[in-house]
Specification:
With 345 residues, the protein is mostly helical. It has helices at residues 2-21, 29-38, 53-88, 100-114, 124-144, 152-176, 180-190, 203-218, 220-226, 230-235, 240-262, 268-280, 284-308, 317-334. The radius of gyration is 20 Å and the shape is globular.
């Protein structure tokens, strides 16, 4: 496990370095870290300046915050994927498929186009997306429990239904919006984009992802117990009602903050936990940190492809993740031998 973590951390640093150098202006990797280190208070005087002002602007103000945002969003989506799959004991669950992202999109679209929650200032977008994500997840669980059952099929059907309704609501909001420029921005944002990555936007998602990751890691025994079912978890001392509420809040908070900053990016939370479980097993003490690192690396490269594939035009990153995630989702459904959490598909 330490070797895996160290390897992934090295891979993350290399991915950040290479991704920052890629673009219309070629910049050497050594220059990237010289510029980065020179921004640290007290370090600038020890680093000889052998780069231009233009290179510093490109690296520090444009590329670096975008790449770091990709790492944060990828890690957050992977962590929330782990949480949702444990919450519902469903190997096919992630925020995008279950409709949580659609709920967050409704809230965020209302903020962008109509100024909802404007009294909260810079927190309005995150709060609107969080409220939408929380509402959608409550609707999905309420609908799936009608009749006293909460099977995988009912949960997926509820997620698909709620996702379709909320997507239609988002389209209706966009159709009724008076601002044409805002509509174009929202449509591009809905497919996922890290183009708005700036240093001032990194603080909130970074703190939320780290706090939620540490909270979940502290509860790894409860997450492991939940894989065996609520009755078994209860016999092991887990307060399943309270723990499910906690997971619901963490899921809504993570999804809302991530969707607010990057739009709805699908399939990352579905793919990364499964890939990680193949490598390290189903123990959440290992799955959570490794999934976060895998997701960070994956989304950095997905964004690099989105930036460069049709340069100077930029693809929404959601297209890249869907091209990877769609076939993976189909393969996962067809793989009869896959066992989630050691029991039941």
């Amino acid at each position: 496990m330490p070797l895996i973590i160290i390897s992934l951390l090295v891979g993350l640093v290399l991915s950040i370095t290479i991704a920052v150098t890629l673009g219309s202006v070629d910049i050497k990797p050594a220059t990237v870290w010289k510029i980065a280190l020179s921004q640290i208070p007290g370090m600038g005087q020890w680093i000889p300046v052998d780069w231009s002002k233009g290179e510093e602007t490109i690296i520090w103000d444009i590329r670096f915050p975008r790449v770091l945002l990709g790492a944060i969003v990828g890690a957050g989506l992977s962590v929330v994927g782990v949480a949702i799959q444990s919450l519902v004991r469903n190997s096919l669950a992630d925020p995008y498929i279950l409709g949580v992202s659609s709920g967050a999109s409704v809230g965020a679209t209302l903020v962008i186009l109509f100024g909802a929650f404007s009294m909260f200032g810079q927190f309005a977008l995150s709060l609107g997306a969080f409220a939408g994500a929380l509402l959608s997840i409550l609707l999905i669980f309420s609908l799936s429990r009608i009749g006293g059952q909460n099977s995988t099929v009912r949960l997926l059907m509820s997620g698909i239904a709620i996702s379709a309704i909320l997507s239609a609501v988002t389209s209706l909001i966009i159709f009724s919006a008076p601002n044409e420029h805002g509509i174009r921005s929202v449509l591009f944002w809905m497919s996922g984009s890290l183009a708005g990555g700036k240093w001032e936007y990194l603080t909130i998602p970074t703190l939320v992802v780290l706090i939620c990751l540490f909270v979940l890691m502290a509860q790894y025994r409860s997450l492991n117990a939940m894989l065996m079912g609520e009755e078994s978890a209860g016999t092991l001392g887990v307060n399943t009602v309270q723990f499910r509420k906690q997971l619901l809040m963490i899921t809504a908070l993570l999804t809302g903050v991530i969707v607010a900053i990057s739009g709805a990016i699908g399939f990352v939370g579905l793919m990364m936990p499964h890939i990680v479980r193949v490598v390290v097993g189903s123990d959440h003490r290992r799955v959570l940190p490794v999934s976060a690192l895998f997701g960070a690396i994956f989304l950095i490269w997905a964004d690099s492809i989105a930036r460069l594939a049709f340069a100077p035009e930029e693809l929404p990153i959601g297209i890249i993740t869907a091209l990877c995630g769609g076939p993976f989702f189909i393969w996962l459904m067809l793989r009869n031998s896959y066992s989630f959490g050691g029991s039941g598909r």
